[in-house]
Write a structure and sequence with these properties.
mainly alpha, 4 helices
Length: about 170
């Protein structure tokens, strides 16, 4: 074992020490050029022109920001209104489905108690008439709700954009 220890120690000594000290690749070093800005006086006319344009740009930005904020508020209100309207329509549909299902269950129960063909015709005719009346009423309710939601949603947005156009941004 002494020989193997001596052999590995001699191998370690035979490696050059400079290989690990210097990197294999070195980035070139560049100096940042020093550019001096010439000192010159800006004429008063140019200075006034720049200040005037800057103040106009700031005023226009403020107007645009104000109009954008108003439009955002109007659209948020419209989305809230439409969300409530869609929810109301969903409730209306569920209520109509419940009414129609109950009417059909009642019709089926009455149909089971019929004893003659004439009673079937009479019962079916009255059921179809009631269902047609119910369908007509439900349609009118849906149309009225849709008109209400549309008006409540569109009116604030329309007013906001009318005001924005009137201000001539």
């Amino acid at each position: 074992m002494d020989q193997s220890t001596q052999t590995s120690a001699s191998k370690a000594k035979s490696r050059p020490a400079t290989a690990s000290a210097t990197p294999a690749f070195e980035f070139p070093k560049f100096g940042i050029p020093n550019f001096e800005v010439p000192k010159m006086e800006i004429p008063a006319a140019y200075r006034e022109f720049a200040e005037k344009n800057a103040s106009q740009a700031k005023a226009t930005y403020e107007k645009m920001k104000s109009a954008a904020d108003e439009a955002t508020d109007a659209l948020e209100g419209a989305y809230a209104t439409i969300t409530k309207g869609v929810s109301d329509c969903g409730h209306k549909v569920i209520e109509a489905a419940r009414i129609n299902a109950n009417a059909h269950f009642d019709y089926t129960a009455q149909l089971m108690a019929v004893k003659s063909f004439a009673e079937i015709v009479e019962l079916s005719t009255s059921h179809v008439r009631r269902q047609f009346e119910s369908f007509t009423t439900q349609t009118k309710d849906f149309v009225a709700l849709a008109e209400k939601v549309t008006t409540e949603t569109a009116e604030p947005v329309k007013d906001c954009f009318t005001k924005a156009i009137a201000r001539k941004i």
